[in-house]
Each structure stands twice: as C-alpha cells, then as structure tokens.
Design goal:
single chain, alpha/beta, 6-stranded antiparallel beta sheet, 25 strands
Length: 980
C-alpha cells in the first residue's frame, strides 16, 4: 500500500441515518452473483463486464423517478457482443435491457437482470447524399448528429429538450419528438431505414433489397405472424379508423399499431414497430434518417399572458400564422428558471398566475423572414399581453443571444423546476396530448386536478401540438405520499382519456409509469394486439419486461426512488444526465450524475453496512481521483450543479494535516518551487530522449507506488523542454496592459523549444506590433493563479496564493488602471473567478477593481484589428479548453485561428482533455479516455497547425494525437511577422 494512501473513512457520510426502504440490500454488496459473473466474463472478456456493486448502483438510476438495480452491466462493443448476450439470455432464461444516455423519464433504461450499455462504443455519424440523409449509430447524441449536419444546412426532425445528452438510439426507441417535430417530423416519419438485432439474434437491415427474403428464411414464423396480424387489423374497419385517429395527435403510448397499416411487408412493418418500442423488440444498431432543411433565419418572442388559459387560447393563432414552435410555460416554470444562467433575475417575482408563450418562426431567406414577422405582428396586435417584470419586452427579436436565452429557459423546464423541488422529494415528469383546439380547456382541467390532490405542479409544453408536460414532487419514502400520487394518476388518466380522448404519453413513451394504464387508453382489443405482437417478436420475453406492457395495476408504484439529501452543491440534482457528455471521465470511471447517485446510495444505507463499505472503497478512485475538476458539468447542468467542486471538497477531506502544511509551504515559497521545476525539466531534457523517457518513467512509477499515485506525477514523453529563465524585456512606461505570463509558460517551453519564440516573446511582439505594448512585472516569478492548489482541494494553500496574486496584480496595474492580460485560459479563469471565495474582505475589494483579460480576448479584440497578416497556413485544427467554455472564448480562438489559416477545424467531438493542470500526469488514463474520440477526428486528415491556448492542454492533445499543439498566439505572431 502506498505510504500516503488516503483512508476511505474520510469520505463516509457524517450523520447518523437509518436504512431507506429502497436501499440496495446487503446481499448485493459483493456485486454480480455467480455463476452469472464468471459466465459473462468467459463469454465477453473481463473488460466488458461490470460487476462491482458500485458499478451496479451507478447504472441503477436514470432521469426517471424509478430505480432498479441490475444484476450485471455489460459494455457491448459491437453487434457480436449484443448477439452473444441475447443468446446467453435465451439459454439461461434471463432478461436484457438496453441503456444508452439514461435520459428517459419513465424508467425504460432500467432493468433488474442484465443491463447492456450501448452508449460508450456506439457513437458516429456518416453524412449521406450531401446532407439529405445521415447514417447514425445509436450512442450518438442528437446535438452531435446535428453538429455534423449543420455544415450541410440540414438538421434531424426530432429535437427533444435533452438533445445535448439524449442519444439517437433512445430517441428512436421512444419516438421522442420535441419542440417542433409534432407528428410529421418525428422519428416514425423521418427514419429512412433501420438496422437492428431481433431477440433471437437475427440481424435486419431494412434498406437491404433482400431484407424480406433474408428475414423469411431466418424467421418464417415471425413473418407469417406479422402478415396475419396486418390482415386481422385491416379487416376490422372500426379498429383501423381508431388507430388512424389515435395518431392524428402526438402519441407514444404502446406500440405503433399503424405500422401494420403503413407497412406492406414484414420488414416494413418491423421498421415501423421498432420506432417507439422502447427496446422491447430488439436492439437498434444503426439508424438512417431523412434530414430536414436547417432554416437559419429565426424570429423569436417570449410573450407574457395574465393566465395559463389565456396563453393557451393564443396558440391556434400562431399555428395558423405558420410558427414552427409555440412553447408554453406557466408561472412556476418561469420563476424556477431563474436558476439558469442568463435568465433575468426579475422573473423570480413573477405572479403565480403568469404564463408565457415562446414563439419561433424560421425562414430560409430575408424575404421569407420578413413575411413571418408580418404574420406574427398581426397576431400580437390581437392579444392582451402583460408586462409583469422590467425585463419583459413582448417583442420578436432576431438577436441570437436573446433567442438562445429564451430557449435555455424553456429547455431547462424539467431540471430547473426539479432542482427547486422540496429537498428529499422524488420528481415525476408526465406528458400528454390533447387536440390542439382543446389546449386551453385541458390547462384549466389539469390545474384543477393538481390543486385537488395537493400538488403545486409546474406546467409547460409543446403547445402547438397540444402536448403538455407537468411535474409532480412527492416523498417516495412516505406511503401516504405515494398513495396521493397514485390517486392523482388514476384521476389524471381518466381525465385525459374520457374527457379529451387524448394520449397518456405524447412523446416520452409508455415506460413504467403509464404501462398499467395502457388498456385504459387503447381498450382491450388494441391492447391485446400489442401483447400478441410482443409475444410474436420476443416469444421468450427476454427484452425489457414490464417496460411497455404490464398487467399489474400498481406497477407504476414499484421501484420509486427516494432522494436522500447529500452535499448542498449536489442536492438539487434530479439525475437528468445532461452533464454526462461533457465529462472527461465518462468512459473511464464515473460521470457527474453517477458521482451523485453513488453518494445518495451511501446515505440510503445504515452506517457501516457492507454496501456502504464497498461503495466507499471504490469512490476514492472512481469518483474523486479521476474527476478532472474542470466543472464543465456545471455549464451543461441547467441549474448549475458543480460536481467538480464537490469532488475538490472531497479531496480536501482526504488530506492529512501534514499534506496541508506542505501545500502551504509550496504556496509561500513558490518562487523556489517554480525555479526547481524549471531546473528539473532542464536536467531531464539534458539526459537525451533515449535515456530520459525510460529512466524517468520507471523512477516516477516507483515513486507513485511508494507514495501515492494522486500525489506523484508520472513522467510523460510529451513533456516539453524547459522555458528560458529570462522573460522578454518590457517597459512600464507607455504600456497599455500588464502582461502576466502563467507559471506553466514560465516553466515549459513551446513544442519547438528554443528553436522558436516563446509564448511570452510572441505576446510581447504581437502587442508591440499592434501599437499596444505590454509590461511584464519584474517580480512576476513566484506568483500563480492558485489553480494548482484549488484543483487539489488544498484550501489553505489556495488562500495564500489567491491573496498574494490579487495584491500583486493590484500593485502592477496601478490599482486597476491597466488591464491584466493572462496567457493561459485556465489561469484567467482562476484569477478572474476562482480565487474570489478565498480572498480576505480587503482583497475582495481590490479584486473588484481589477480587469482580468484573457490573451485570446486581448489578441482578438485589441491586437488583430491593428495587425497585418503576412502569411497563412493551409489548415489548422483547434482544441477549445474547458476554461474557454467557462469564459465563452471559443469563438475568439476560432477567430484567431482563422487569421492564421485558410481553413479551421473545430472537432465536433472536442471536449475537456482531462489533463487538468497535472491530473493528466497523475492519471494519464483520464486524458487518454477523454481525448480518444477527438483524436480520431483530428487524425482523420493532416493539418498544418494544431492550436490551443493552454500549455498543459496542448501537452495532453499532443499525447492524444501525436501532433505538437501550440498556442494560437504563437501562430498569430508567425503569421503577422513582417517579411524579411
């Protein structure tokens, strides 16, 4: 055991607690039971089988109110793995559930036996026919697919609010639609072809001209049964008419019986049935979509009404005017959305009865847009709008920033409202549809029903399509509260079916909470046809039992999860999963959601239980050590939960007093530390590559084993030479800014070493060349942005350096008279924001007077307009760092790269590299995993320049791609250097 290995005990929840009713039982503490574990490992290999109880717990929760512990998790890599597991399940009488993003709201992605992860190895987009079609793998997020299509002016039809996280496989399997899809742009209408694996292992590609012949040979009973069901349905005129009527409005409840009417052959019928089947008919391995035009000219308004019914009454007017999206938000939704960054703070005081419509028109050109705006103005003139807050304009706008803010508020409906629910309550998200002409009536009825059952729910929805969403919060650990929810659901289903002949699920698919009410909506005849279809396609009932079809009238009350209170920063989490695609460790250990899920399970356990002990043993590495601490999860989370901050807090708890004292000493004597680090790199470089890399790798690995991997960095061959001890000469007289070279740029040189100008020389030269000279203070050595200690949770040391750098910056800038230019984006973020909580009151006052400017902003806004580009390279690929995302600097990076190169590529798969200062040297596997997809995209072709704006991230990207990354400012200096 390493000398300074932290005790898991330090992470144990500190308060006394009793067992929760839904806790994981002690029987599961050892993880997957035998022989299931060993048999699957023998079948697939150990790397594809997750069996520890911590693995099972982190997959037991999704965005729904349910929680079911799988017996084992399989991380499938290809269809052979899928077929092998299905064959095994058939032979052993087991059940299988597929899980991709885990953003479904009704428990479809949860199982109690074998759970297959079909996200990790299943992403990829191939654009076809100039963008008219796209072949997409099921683990690809909708946002990622649309990013690839945007270059061709195309977009997918489905546009769910969870597009940044939900995957194509889940969207098709649930027939999820979204803001604009309605009944004409959803998956059922826009899927061109599907490739899937049936429960028996048969693979089908519906685009193959021979697909029907191949299926008839492989599954003759299935083909005969499908055609017999088709004939039976078509012979019943009343049933046929009922099926057609049910899909005139949005409906995802049950199986798509209209597939029997729309498909002429078994394969065509299966293509339709697979859409919305929720993983109960087979595994979708590939989807080909017919795409739609991306009309880029938008005119959008957020219009405020005195009541929900008044807003609903205006919806048909905008539909008739040609609006593409008409979204409804009630007062609860509007008030809760103030937790979303960019939403006006004065919405918090909106009257409860207030409601709003988010209305958007899209057009391909200026003339069409003007026509849309005239039509919109005519509708607005007929409305009685209100102005309940100073920020309300009730006007249509073309401004992208304003429009984006409106949509952020709308898309955050579930998460923002859910985040503001009472602590410890479970969140239920329901959606239903009524004929759009009856929307106002449905709103009134829903509000009355909620009040009758004691729910103060929030309401929003895709009003253009008669589709409403509402949220309910109750305590799943209190039986009376569960019964109150049960009574509400009975009354709600009666209301929707009997009064409005509506759909109990409009776009979220049946799932576990509506399965018991399926027959209530469809009647016994149609429901029995659905059961027969399931038995025909999956005769052994292997796939996802009880997800769509369940005869238990109380099935929706089984598996409801309790929500124990955890650390305050994470307590609002509703486990939606929006954070996961941004997380550097998502394919290595855990995601932000899973870190919170694991913590909650610890708090469900009685103190000292075997499950708690097992979770604590795994949590140190899986959650704390391999968190990059980049906090991009906070940007993706609609309510701004910073799981990275929580992990830094846990790191602080694990420090011994001795470690804390050493950290404070390094901060107080950082001048010595900086010089020693530069000297060490110089000595290492002098050994020569053949001796240096194997020797230092071996030495540092031994030290890591002896001391602790999270304290001793491992030598990496990509570590650059040492920077020059001397910074370029500058003068305070006439300076337009104070230039603060980050310590990492004072220690490490660029990829070219002393063969090219250092970054400091480049910044000084560029500034002088543009007539905006900068000054480097003589005493800059020994100062730092404090991120070194902040990222590791050394709070006392962080406070030492935070206060020192602010005091120094105050003096350098003449009390804030000059801006402070910082040449590493993470250091800019550190000085501008992250140091603030650690400052004394006096230094906070000083900090408020400082203007901290990132070098990207300085170069793009102040220097570039005054520079002449003398030479440009052919193509450049850029890596936006996580700090750029926090500071909103990505476009500045692209602008500067565009000045240096004829073509600029920002990879669609770019995300935080996970190097995180030195974490990529402490846990190189983190960076290897975080950069894998981006590296594939980068290396698909050669580029002339590889650019970023943070030295450690550049090292991480060089390790990932094999190409030397350098600062975009160094490249700009080369591009603008006078000829001759």
């Amino acid at each position: 055991m390493p000398l300074l290995e932290p005790e898991p005990e330090t992470l144990r929840p500190g308060r006394t607690r009793g067992p929760a009713p839904d806790r994981v039982s002690d029987r599961s503490a050892a993880g997957t039971p035998e022989p299931l574990r060993s048999e699957l490992i023998a079948l697939l290999g150990a790397a594809k089988v997750l069996w520890k109880v911590s693995d099972l717990v982190k997959y037991a929760s999704d965005a729904s109110p349910y929680r079911f512990l799988p017996r084992v998790v399989v991380v499938a890599e290809d269809v052979d793995d899928i077929s092998a597991v299905l064959s095994y399940a058939h032979g052993k009488g087991r059940h299988v559930v597929f899980r991709a993003a885990g953003t479904s709201l009704n428990g479809q992605a949860q199982g109690e036996d074998i759970l297959i992860d079909v996200r990790r190895h299943w992403s990829g987009v191939t654009v076809l026919d100039g963008g008219a079609r796209a072949r997409i793998r099921p683990g690809t997020t909708i946002a990622r697919a649309n990013a690839a299509l945007a270059r061709y002016g195309r977009v997918l039809g489905p546009d769910p609010a969870s597009a940044i996280a939900c995957t194509v496989g889940g969207v098709v399997a649930n027939n999820a639609s979204g803001m604009t899809a309605g009944t004409t742009r959803n998956s059922y209408r826009t899927v061109s072809s599907l490739s899937f694996v049936l429960p028996g292992g048969t693979m089908v590609d519906t685009a193959d001209p021979a697909a029907d012949a191949l299926l008839a040979h492989a599954e003759p009973r299935l083909c005969e049964g499908l055609m017999a069901l088709k004939a039976e349905i078509e012979a019943d005129e009343a049933l046929t008419a009922r099926i057609r009527a049910k899909y005139e409005i949005k409906n995802t409840n049950g199986y798509r019986l209209d597939a029997f009417l729309d498909g002429a052959t078994p394969v065509e019928i299966l293509r339709g049935l697979m859409v919305g089947s929720e993983g109960t008919f087979g595994f979708l391995s590939e989807v080909v979509f017919d795409t739609l035009p991306l009309d880029r000219r938008t005119s959008t308004a957020l219009l405020f009404f005195p009541s929900l019914t008044a807003a609903a009454a205006a919806v048909p007017l905008f539909n008739a005017a040609g609006a593409l999206a008409v979204e409804l938000m009630d007062g609860n939704t509007l008030r809760a959305s103030v937790s979303v960054r960019g939403v006006p703070a004065d919405w918090a005081a909106l009257p409860r009865e207030t409601a709003a419509l988010l209305v958007e028109f899209r057009a391909p050109d200026e003339a069409a847009q003007e026509g849309c705006e005239r039509a919109a103005a005519e509708v607005v003139a007929r409305l009685s709008l209100v102005t309940p807050a100073a920020s309300v304009t009730n006007e249509f706008t073309r401004d992208p920033g304003t429009i984006n803010g409106y949509w952020k508020a709308r898309n955050a409906f579930v998460t923002a409202v859910g985040g503001s629910r009472p602590a410890g309550t479970t969140l239920i998200t329901e959606d239903f549809a009524v004929p759009p002409s009856r929307l106002a009536e449905a709103c009134e009825a829903l509000l009355e029903l909620q009040a009758r059952h004691g729910f103060d729910a929030a309401v929003a929805g895709h009003a253009a399509h008669g589709n409403l969403h509402f949220l309910l919060a109750f305590d799943a650990g209190v039986s009376s509260d569960v019964e109150r929810y049960a009574a509400f659901m009975d009354a709600f289903c009666t209301l929707v079916v009997d009064r409005f002949d509506g759909s109990l699920k409009a776009e979220h698919a049946t799932g576990r909470n509506i399965a018991p009410f399926l027959e209530r909506e469809w009647g016994p005849r149609a429901t029995e046809l659905m059961w027969r279809t399931k038995r025909l396609i999956d005769p052994d009932g292997v796939l996802a039992p009880r997800v769509v079809l369940d005869r238990d009238p109380r099935a929706h009350l089984r598996g409801l999860k309790t929500i124990p209170s955890v650390e305050a920063v994470a307590d609002p989490c509703i486990e939606c999963g929006f954070c996961e695609p941004t997380c550097p460790s998502q394919d290595l250990t855990t995601t932000p959601r899973q870190r919170i899920v694991l913590r909650r399970e610890m708090l469900r356990q009685p103190d000292g239980s075997p499950v708690e002990e097992a979770l604590l043993d795994a949590y140190g590495y899986d959650a704390v050590d391999t968190c990059a601490g980049d906090s991009t999860c906070m940007l993706a989370c609609p309510v701004g939960i910073d799981t990275g901050a929580m992990m830094k807090g846990f790191r602080s708890l694990r420090h011994s007093p001795r470690e804390e004292r050493i950290a404070v000493l390094t901060a107080r004597h950082f001048r010595v530390v900086e010089s020693a680090a530069r000297l060490a790199v110089t000595v290492a470089d002098g050994l020569g590559e053949r001796v240096r890399d194997p020797l230092l790798t071996a030495v540092t690995r031994l030290a890591r084993k002896a001391v602790r991997p999270d304290l001793v960095p491992e030598w990496l061959p990509e570590i650059p030479p040492a920077a020059s001890r001397r910074l370029p000469p500058t003068s305070r007289a006439g300076a337009h800014a104070v230039y603060f070279p980050a310590c990492v740029n004072r220690i490490f040189a660029g990829p070219g070493g002393d063969r090219e100008p250092s970054l400091a020389h480049s910044v000084v030269a560029l500034s002088s060349r543009a007539g905006k000279p900068v000054w480097i203070p003589d005493d800059v050595t020994g100062t730092c942005c404090a991120t070194i200690w902040h990222s590791k949770g050394y709070d006392a040391a962080n406070a030492v350096m935070a206060n020192r750098v602010v005091e120094a910056a105050w003096g350098w800038t003449g009390g804030g008279a000059l801006p402070l230019v910082v040449d590493a984006t993470s250091c800019t973020l550190g000085i501008a924001r992250e140091v603030v909580p650690y400052l004394t009151d006096d230094n906070r006052a000083l900090h408020r007077e400082l203007t901290v400017v990132d070098s990207l902003v300085w170069a793009a806004d102040e220097l570039l307009p005054r520079l002449t580009v003398e030479r440009r390279t052919g193509s450049a690929v850029v890596h936006p760092t996580c700090s750029m995302d926090h500071l909103e600097l990505v476009e500045r990076l692209r602008t500067l790269a565009g000045a240096c190169a004829e073509e600029v590529l920002l990879p669609d798969d770019a995300r935080c590299c996970g190097f995180a200062g030195d974490r990529g040297m402490l846990h190189k596997e983190l960076t290897d995993s975080a950069t894998a997809k981006e590296a594939v995209e980068v290396n698909a072709r050669e580029h002339d320049a590889y650019l970023s704006a943070n030295r450690m991230c550049e090292i991480g990207m060089e390790r990932a791609t094999g190409h030397p990354y350098r600062s975009v400012l160094a490249e700009l200096e080369r591009a603008t250097r006078p000829s001759g």
